[in-house]
Design a protein that fits this description.
alpha/beta, 16 helices, 18% strand, Rossmann fold, six-stranded mixed beta sheet, 3 domains, elongated, single chain, five-stranded parallel beta sheet, 454 residues
C-alpha cells in the first residue's frame, strides 16, 4: 500500500507535457518551457495548446487526449477552471500532474469547489497531483525545472546533497537564489502549494531511499495527517530539518490565505518534530545556515565545542548560546592547559572559551587550535575573529583552513564587523570555508553538524 504513495515519476520522468504552452515570452507557460530547456531535462517535452502549431521549435498538441503516447507528468499553467477541464479530458494520458495555477482553495469557497473537482477527476484516473498553487519541481538529478521565474531573475543552485520541501514557492525560490549565490547545491526541490495530494510524507517516502540526498530541509505551514508524517519522517534515515510557520495568530491567518492550509497548534508540531527526530529551525536565516553547515562541513562526530576568541565578551556570549543549543564546552584537559600555559602570557586565563585578547597573533590562534583540537575532548571549534589585533594578518585564513584539514575536525569561523572584516572573510570564502557574521549563525551551524554526527 505504501509503495503506491511514492510519486517516483515526478522525480525521474521520461516525458513531460506543458499544458497551456505559449509562444508569448511574457506568459508563465513559456517561461516554464524555457526553464525545462535551460535545466537540461533529458526526457521528451511536449507543448499542449490548441492556439499554436509549435512552441520553441516543438510540435504543439491541441490537448493531452490528442497525443499519440502518454506522458509521465503534465505541467498545468492555465486558469483554474481550464485546469479542471483539461485534466478531465486528458487524465488517461498522464501519470502525474504539476498544477502551477492558483485560484483554488486559497481564494475561498469557489476555489475550494474547483479544487475538489480537480482532485476527484485525478483520483478517477489514478493521476497524482503536485499543487495546485505551487512552483512545482526543480531537480538536478533528472534536469526537470518547472519554475516560472526566468534564469536571469533567479539563479538555480548546482547539484548537491540537500533536498528542499516547501509549501511556499516564494520561500523555496528565495532560498535557492541565495544558495546558488553561495555555490551550495541541492538534489531536488519540491514546492507543493495547496498539496491536495502529494505532500511532505510522500516526498519523504521517496527521498528516504534517494542516493542523491543526504539531508532534507522543510518549510511547513500545516500538516493534514500528522501520524503519517511522523511515521514517514521516522523511516527516513536522513538529517531532517523544518521551519514551522503560522506559530502565532497573525501567521495562522496568513497561511490560510496563502495556501489554504490550517496551521494548527504549534505545540503539537513541536512534539511531532521531537518524536520524528526533526531539528526545528526558527526562520529563513536559520534555514540558510543549516544548508551552509550541511554543505560545507563534515559531521562533527559529537557536541563538544572549543571556543577561541580575541574578544572576551564575544566568547562569553558564544558560550551561552552554545549551552542553549545543547552543545557542551569541556574544560581544557590538564596536559593541554599546562602546555598552553608555557606558551601564552602568564596573565591569560587558560579555559574554554579561551580569550587571546587584543594582543592575539596568527601564531597564538594556530597554536591554541592545534593543541586543543588534536585532543579527543573536542569535536569542533568555533573560532571568533574580530580582526582588531595588529598581530593578525591575511595569511591566517589559509593557515586555519590547512590546520582544520590536517586535524580532521570542523572549525566554524565567526567574524562580525565592517569593511576590513569583510575583506578578511572573503579570503576564507575563496578557500571554500563560510564565515558567519553573527555568533548566532556560527552556534547554529555547530549545533547542526553536531546532530549530523550523532
Amino acid at each position: 500500500m505504501e509503495e503506491k504513495r511514492i510519486p517516483e515519476f515526478f522525480f525521474n520522468p521520461s516525458s513531460v507535457a506543458v499544458v497551456g504552452a505559449s509562444a508569448n515570452p511574457a506568459k508563465l507557460s513559456h517561461i516554464i518551457m524555457k526553464s525545462i530547456e535551460e535545466a537540461g531535462f533529458r526526457g521528451s517535452v511536449y507543448p499542449v495548446n490548441p492556439a499554436h502549431q509549435e512552441v520553441l521549435g516543438r510540435r504543439c498538441y491541441p490537448s493531452l487526449d490528442t497525443m499519440e503516447e502518454g506522458v509521465d507528468v503534465a505541467i498545468f499553467a492555465l486558469p483554474a477552471e481550464k485546469v479542471v477541464e483539461e485534466l478531465q479530458k486528458g487524465a488517461s494520458n498522464i501519470s502525474g500532474a504539476i498544477v502551477i495555477s492558483g485560484g483554488f482553495s486559497e481564494t475561498g469557497p469557489r476555489g475550494r469547489r474547483l479544487e475538489e473537482e480537480l482532485l476527484s477527476a485525478a483520483k478517477d484516473k489514478g493521476v497524482r497531483i503536485v499543487g495546485p498553487n505551487c512552483m512545482g519541481i526543480y531537480d538536478t538529478v533528472s534536469g526537470l525545472d518547472t519554475l516560472f521565474i526566468p534564469y536571469d531573475r533567479v539563479d538555480r543552485p548546482p547539484a548537491g546533497r540537500i533536498a528542499i520541501l516547501s509549501q511556499s514557492g516564494s520561500f523555496a525560490l528565495t532560498a535557492m537564489d541565495v544558495l546558488a549565490r553561495e555555490g551550495i547545491g541541492v538534489s531536488r526541490m519540491v514546492s507543493y502549494g495547496n498539496k491536495i495530494d502529494v505532500d511532505e510524507a510522500d516526498c519523504l517516502d521517496f527521498l528516504r531511499d534517494d542516493e542523491n540526498t543526504d539531508a532534507i530541509v522543510m518549510y511547513i505551514e500545516g500538516i493534514d495527517d500528522g501520524r503519517r508524517f511522523v511515521e514517514s519522517a521516522r523511516r527516513c534515515k536522513k538529517n531532517l530539518f523544518a521551519i514551522k510557520v503560522g506559530r502565532r495568530e497573525a501567521g495562522k491567518r496568513a497561511t490560510t490565505l496563502h495556501t489554504g492550509s490550517i496551521a494548527g497548534r504549534y505545540e503539537l508540531y513541536r512534539a511531532a518534530f521531537r518524536e520524528a527526530a526533526i531539528t526545528e529551525l526558527s526562520g529563513f536565516e536559520e534555514f540558510i545556515d543549516a544548508c551552509r553547515a550541511i554543505h560545507r562541513f563534515r559531521p562533527a562526530g559529537g557536541n563538544r565545542v572549543m571556543i577561541i576568541t580575541d574578544g572576551g565578551g564575544m566568547g562569553v556570549s558564544v558560550a551561552d548560546m552554545c549551552v542553549d543549543e545543547g552543545l557542551v564546552l569541556p574544560e581544557l584537559p590538564e596536559d593541554v592547559a599546562e602546555g598552553l600555559g608555557k606558551i601564552l602570557p602568564p596573565y591569560f586565563t587558560i579555559s574554554n572559551p579561551l580569550d587571546l585578547t587584543g594582543n592575539a597573533t596568527d601564531e597564538w590562534y594556530l597554536t591554541t587550535l592545534a593543541k586543543t583540537m588534536t585532543h579527543r575532548s573536542y569535536d569542533a571549534a568555533i573560532v571568533v575573529l574580530l580582526w582588531g589585533p595588529p598581530g593578525l594578518t591575511d595569511a591566517l585564513p589559509s593557515k586555519i583552513c590547512e590546520l582544520s584539514k590536517r586535524v580532521g575536525k570542523p572549525f566554524l569561523i565567526c567574524s562580525p564587523g565592517g569593511r576590513f572584516t569583510e575583506r578578511m572573510s572573503a579570503i576564507f570564502e575563496t578557500l571554500g570555508v563560510p564565515v558567519f557574521s553573527t555568533p548566532e549563525g556560527a552556534v547554529r551551524a555547530a549545533s547542526i553538524i553536531a546532530r549530523e554526527g550523532g
